[in-house]
Amino acid sequence: MKRKIWPSLSLRMRLALLIVLAVVPAMGLMAMTALDQRRLAFEHAHVQALSLLRPATSDFDRAREETRTLLSLWQSHPALRGGDHAACSKLFADLVRENPRYTNLSVIAPDGRVLCSAIPFNGKLNPTASPTIQRVIRTREFTVGHYAIAPISQQAVLPMGYPALDTAGRLRGVIMASLDLSLLNQLAAQASLPPGSA
Questions:
Q1: In the Cβ-directed half-sphere of 39, how many Cα atoms lie within 13 Å?
Q2: Residue-level pLDDT at 138
Q3: Across all residues in the chain, what is the average pLDDT?
Q4: Cβ-based neighbours of 128, under 8 Å, separated by 6 or more
């Protein structure tokens, strides 16, 4: 005697089960295709965003490298090496006028004294409050800081620092360049991002 397959199921139930078994793989395939399309759309958006931002980051990289080069040149200027703070301040004031990307240029001694500054400032800063100054003192290398409100100009800036060394290689101070953050806004505007981008 043959055994019945699905003996307790009616014909209608058997047909419904066969339809479900036929449809489930198709639905699974559709779900996998949708997930794959979503992944591809995300990858396409990522590549497009990078291509839009590449010119802006290139401009920022250029500004950073120009600043590093200029600070390294200025640290050996006779006005800085000779300790003529008035001449140094005048030099920096002229440089800021010629380079509007900077809100201020200054030399800060390790103890916080402002040795010279494009913006006149008589006083002392707390060097421990500036991670950029602390890192330059520690590493004696060019350093790009993070967004900050500059203590002298009171403007939103991106601080960059370079060690000012004497002829014996001792640290005399930190040359600080405060890059105006409106420059970064201009770079973002030049990137031609789609509406609603951040």
A1: 6
A2: 92
A3: 80
A4: 134
pLDDT for 162 beyond 90:
yes
Q: Which residues contact 142 (CB under 8 A, 6 or more apart)?
A: 68, 71, 72, 136, 160, 161, 162
> What Å distances lie between residue 159 and 25, 96, 120, CA to CA?
59, 14, 18
DSSP per residue over 106-136, as a string? EEE-TTSBEEEESS---SB--GGG-HHHHHH
Of the pLDDT bands very low, low, confident and very high (cuts 50, 70, 90), residue 141 is very high
Q: 144 has which bridge partners?
A: 160
DSSP 166: -
Domains of the chain in start order, with CATH, are 53-186 (3.30.450.20)
Task: Specify the higher pLDDT residue, 131 or 84.
Answer: 131
DSSP letters of 25-38?
HHHHHHHHHHHHHH
- 7-14 long-range contacts (CB < 8 A, ≥24 apart) are none
Helix pair angle (11-74, 181-190), 10° resolution: 130
Cα 104 from Cα 119, distance rounded (Å): 6
- On the question of pLDDT at 88 being above 60, the answer is yes
User: How much is the pTM?
Assistant: 0.63
The token pair that represents 163 in the structure block: 């060690």
The tokens 């939103």 sit on which residue?
156
State how beta strands 114-117 and 102-108 pair: antiparallel
